[in-house]
Known about the structure:
Number of helices of chain A: 14
Low-confidence stretches of chain A: none
Strand order of the largest sheet of chain A: 2-1-3-4-5-11
Strand content of chain A: 15-25%
Oligomer: homodimer
Structural class of chain A: alpha/beta
Largest sheet of chain A: 6 strands, parallel
CATH topology of the largest domain in chain A: Rossmann fold
Largest interface: A-B, 52 and 52 residues
Mean pLDDT of chain A: 94
Radius of gyration of chain A: 26 Å
Helix content of chain A: 40-55%
Distance between the termini of chain A: 78 Å
Amino acid sequence: MVTLKDIAREAGVSVMTVSRVVNGQLSKVSEENIKKIQEIIKKRGYVPNSTARSLSSKSSNIISVIVQGDGNEFKKSLYNATMVGEIVPYVQERGYYLMLHFITNYDDITQRLRTWNARGAIFIGTFDYDVQKIQQDNSIPLVFTDSYSHVRQIINVGIDDYKGGVLAAKHFIEKGHRSFAYVGEYMESSVVQQRLKGFKDTLEAHGFSLRSDHILDGYIIKDTAKAICSFKEPVTAIFASSDTLAVSLISDLRDLGKKVPDDYSIIGFDGFPLGSLIKPRLTTIYQDVAKKARIAADIVFRHIEDPSSPAESIVLDVQLVERDSVKTIET
Amino acid sequence: MVTLKDIAREAGVSVMTVSRVVNGQLSKVSEENIKKIQEIIKKRGYVPNSTARSLSSKSSNIISVIVQGDGNEFKKSLYNATMVGEIVPYVQERGYYLMLHFITNYDDITQRLRTWNARGAIFIGTFDYDVQKIQQDNSIPLVFTDSYSHVRQIINVGIDDYKGGVLAAKHFIEKGHRSFAYVGEYMESSVVQQRLKGFKDTLEAHGFSLRSDHILDGYIIKDTAKAICSFKEPVTAIFASSDTLAVSLISDLRDLGKKVPDDYSIIGFDGFPLGSLIKPRLTTIYQDVAKKARIAADIVFRHIEDPSSPAESIVLDVQLVERDSVKTIET
DNA sequence: CTGAAAGCGCTTACAG
DNA sequence: CTGAAAGCGCTTACAG
Lengths: 331, 331
């Protein structure tokens, strides 16, 4: 392994001079030495040792991406892949490295961040309850996404989940629907709850209701489609908390001999390309996942460069994308 | 930050004794000290500094996952997400950390591996040509997936892509099809080429042919569906190199007023859940992506524990999953 | 513009 | 079972 010392010896200078060249502090080194050193570095294939660098500077150029869960969700939907896929190049462009962690136990977070002296962290998924503890234990920039923690000084990039629910409800109502159901996955997550709340509040504001037994947890109930088909009070409109869920539901309903949107109308959430590939094309609430990821990464770097930057909470808009999965009912 | 030294001082022992406890070398420390030290560690919330550890031991517990491309492919299909989602928990269970790299320039690989003293690496995607160079430059275990490099000592976990093509061809022929097309994405990748080769060879062995202008690169041709519909010599059977591609194709054909499988029959590749959610349910060549990921991770750790382990090349089987996207043509 | 010294927090390799 | 010493490859903080 080639070290600074090796380069220094060969160039006839001290390690400090080589260190300055490696770190781009070129104004502090003579042109002659810069050139000589750069040539030797190239010739020898010198790669700086990041572990040594981190140890002595007490900080690393590692950004940790902390994903909630054991990976099951990661493999199932494109949401996490889109987030991570967007963040990685962003991090790399800035000369940083990305560590990926799956977290099922909050206590692991601080340990994983500290052991590598991570410079910043981006959280993907639901980390509502322990945000405060995580923040107390870590002094590096922590950017949450989709968090509904009530901690005041939190940096978060989220979307208007509530509005998503509102838009879905309004759309169903406009199309003449009068009976509704909500299907959520990971029902305990605030995101899923907010979408539900926006949906329910809006229905009620218009004089309709969402029966509590029409709110289904797709994670608990094995066959959501069957449950919906056997409602005592039948429904025509179903709002699903994700496109993935909506697409599965459409498929399951079809297997039960039901047609979408003729028997059941469905609105999804996310706006992934998938939704426009299926038949009927899925009406959905669109969120800009890539933008969310990019903003989260931006904020991390802003706070790394200027730790005094204020905590900011960003809420991205959502919009209804009307396609073919909601039928118009004449009233 | 709490260090070994702090713990040692508080326990009234040397850093070495603490170090032994931290590293689980409990047989070398008195029970009394073990207990005392463990309590202090817990009380102080001591977290070992991995950068210091790596520097002094000249090795780290980092596994690098190297993904080919700039992330575009990562965000588009569940393939990479499934691979990564499977590998992460596996790596974490063993007390290792995972770094994720997107690579568009081969030269970056060695630099990224070396700078962190990575202990091993798993490659996802096409790394055919530079395998030899990568191997020469790095002495840690390198596990490739889906590589068709001819380097002899390569560790690779792949699938029988050729057989996938064979199965698709046979199925089409059995169902009475006589005219064929192949749609591939990233046509330059060996994986896509092998699937094509198995398909073409089998067609020819049965007295049929695959015209070269019926081989389309989905990455280059904007509207593959339209191209297929305007073939001078029409086809009835289309083999797509991935499920994602097949699903898009079905959607595009539908937009052109064509029906699957009535006008065109389609076979995909991968066997993702998605394929059984759409209508018609997609007939496809199934590969066990999760298994591929797990085996790749297993091999990395086997070679870390025993560097003298022989290079092994594993080829997983594939199978045809018959669903509804291939029509029977009476002959 | 240059460099000598100290130190980051561990582990390795000994000695006892 | 225990510990003192040296060193991993850098950076920080000075001094000149």
